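Objective 1b: paired records.
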Amino acid sequence: MTRFKISPVGLAAATALTVAAIAGGVMIGRATAPAADVPAAAGRKVLYWYDPMAPGQRFERPGKSPFMDMPLQPKYADEVPAPQAPGVTIDPAQTQSLGMRLAKAQRGALPGGLSATGVIDFNERDVAVVQARAAGFVQRVYGRAPGDVVAAGAPLADILVPDWAGAQDEFLAVRRSGDAALIRASRQRLQLLGMPPSLISAVEHGGRVHNVATVVMPSGGVIRTLSVRNGMTVTAGQTLAEVNGLGRVWLNAAVPEAMAGQVRVGEAATASLAAYPGETLGGRVTAILPQAQAESRTLTVRIELPNAGGRLRPGMFATVRFGGLARPALLVPTETVIRTGRRTLVLLAGPRGTYQPAEIRTGREAGGQTEVLAGLREGEQVVASGQFLIDSEASLSGVAARPIGGASPVRGPAALIEGVGRVEQITAGQVTLSHEAIPALQWPAMTMSFRLTDPHLAHAVRPGEQVTFAFEQTANGPIVRRVQRRPAR
């Protein structure tokens, strides 16, 4: 004996038919007259027809349901609920109790300039090296020490050079001969032995030997190194001292790596020192060193400053401000920006008390304003206070943030929905597709017609072909925006 299982839907439908038949005085088993089609209301747009007992199936034309012996019902465009705005909704009374404030993204001039700290250092381009011109013995030093500030021409040491005595005697003998060519050759020999022009002139005019030479400072500055002492022996070319000029000094500023792109070589900079309150010194960026400091993640920016009177001492700290020009930008208050570590967000204020996170890309910050490079449009309102509470609520509710591209992840009326199907029929304005299930709208697999936005789409495919398509769900029904032939597997 075969058993039949009746579904609740079928049982309810059968009961309804039985009651209708009894009420009408009609015997079960007698053929019933076909029910008339339900007419559509005048002036209302019909999206599709459906069976109330199987609402997932949609039909293009009125008629009888293939599931039950009843007419199909129309679905009107004005019955489709409007898409919900993405985000979370907060009662206006609660926003007042939270003290919520809104700010508008607007165009403005972001003040230029960047502040950093720096240290005064020697100008390594202004270094003079003092060397012995010939081998000899140090007879006298003039009490110099590293760190002393000396003037140009200041004596450093007296050196006795034995080899110079014989050459000078020979020069004086040749000079007495009166032969101009020999005198010229003998003078040149003295120069090649390393004698300074002042010493040769003294021998020539004095007529006696000078084999003790005084080594002097070639330029003024501070003695960085000193390696000459009384009584020592020196060789030709030996370094006796190094002198660093103080007329101009370097200011090495530590600029954070994230802001290094705002500094340019040749840019003007100003410095203020605690030693001279109220005074500002001006200079220019001469170099940005190529290596970053791994410990502090900073780049060294070198500024050259004039040092009149030698007041700027290497080792002094200074506050540096780089003078950049103000440039137009899309700005929001810095307090509206939420930094999570992985991305940067603001909370957009929408209509009717809705709020949605939006991902943005930020640039410079100055004067309490943050530059927005992408993710916001001018005129959009963002939450300036209480945004962390709303962001927590949005995270708990699973509300996705609007991406930087601007398209909301919550499907709206302009979002395209993808599908796969087979072309049954296609004309210039309409295509009939037997498509697979569309999970985005919870549609089962069925055959239905779509309007085409562009008549040229009708030439892209032919009946019987497998296609992929994208359509937009509008108040007047689905509209295909894109259709293309599906590659053969």
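Objective 1b, second protein:
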Amino acid sequence: MNVSAERKLGEKIARELYRDPDYIDDPILSEYVSSIWQPLLAAARARGELTPELDDRFAWEVMLGKDRSINAFALPGGWMGLHLGLISVTANRDELASVLAHELSHVTQRHISRIVTQQNRQAPWVLGAMILGALAMSKNPEAGNAVIAGGQALAAQGQLNFSRDMEREADRIGYGVMTQAGFEPQGFVTMFDKLHQAARLNDNGSFPYLRTHPMTTERIAEMQSRQQLGARAPVPPGMEHATMAARSRVLSNPGVDGLRAYVAEADALQAAPANARQAGAFYAAALASARLRDPAAAARWLVRLTAATSGDARAARQATLLAAELALGAGDARRAAVLLDPGAALRPEVMMLSQAQIQTGRPGDAAQRLQTWVALHPRDAAAWQLLAGAHAAHGQPLRAIRAEAEAQVAHMDYSAAVDRFRAAQDLVRKGGAGGDHVEASIIDTRARQVESLLREQGLER
């Protein structure tokens, strides 16, 4: 299975995952995961695990899912899946890095391609359907069985379960990548122990990560021996990570009872000294209170969160971002704009400040900010969609339609993108371009490019 075929298989699966209701593009969590993911990629390049060809041809993108299950998975073509349930149980950055490094190594070592080669009678596209079916089965067995048509469930299990040799290889290489990236080796050991215990206590089908990545005692012992070779002092939980784990818990558990439980947990920790656990509890309580439509309680918890994180710059930034997010949700865009740093070039600030500017009657400023961002990050679908709103509010319908099309391109929905480009061309023919001939020319060029991608996509079927 060559690199091109693997990338196309990955795109086919990723397109379906983008449409999954559980897919979430949360700027705050995505940025945090990226702050761990990018150093791992850099370390893999430095070690020679990530070759220039794979680096250039594969996507290397982490997709988040709201599912509460403890699950992470590697897909063909450099896509990674990460459930919020897994983030929520990690105690620090190092544990999360160990999971991402392990999955990264499955891709750099071409394990999926090697499985297809070993069982070359199995068509790659059927394998793609099996992967989607196995992922669906973690949430809805009937839906999963519908995807895995023709009695292919056993074959899917055999394909998805990496061999023990491949698991050992992903452990060994992932450990090296993780430590070279600057993360502490204890993360691998503590995460393995945590997953092993969870499997023993909760083996009810809710932990697909464990079921496709069996935590054998041999693998755990090997990680423990590696960690002892470079033993260091235990890593204390970080406040920033605690807030991100708390955010994952709230976003993955939207039920009223669950939200109330997070508030009750924070109540019990109010008298405790400021630490990572308290910061996480206050963060969860503030976000949960906002979702329970109790703005007064959310404001009180934000005050406590700000006080608890005052000595940690990264955690304090997360508290400020949460305050701005809740202000936007409450319709107080002016307060959100005051809280956010206008000079920040990071995605959460760019997205939220742009929303605030649109809501306060400054869509032109938002469009300028977002245009700069998408020029550097053309695959950011959410930014393109927000840019469409800014252009529409600024009275530029042609640019708004083009931005909507680019948002569809970013999610590889080329059919929808072509429809939007054609709508833009119709607007130009009807004289609605407002004399924006440069934009009209760009739309014509992009329409031809995406139509070509759509034809290629049709041939794959």
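The chain has a mean pLDDT of 86. The longest strand covers residues 61-65.
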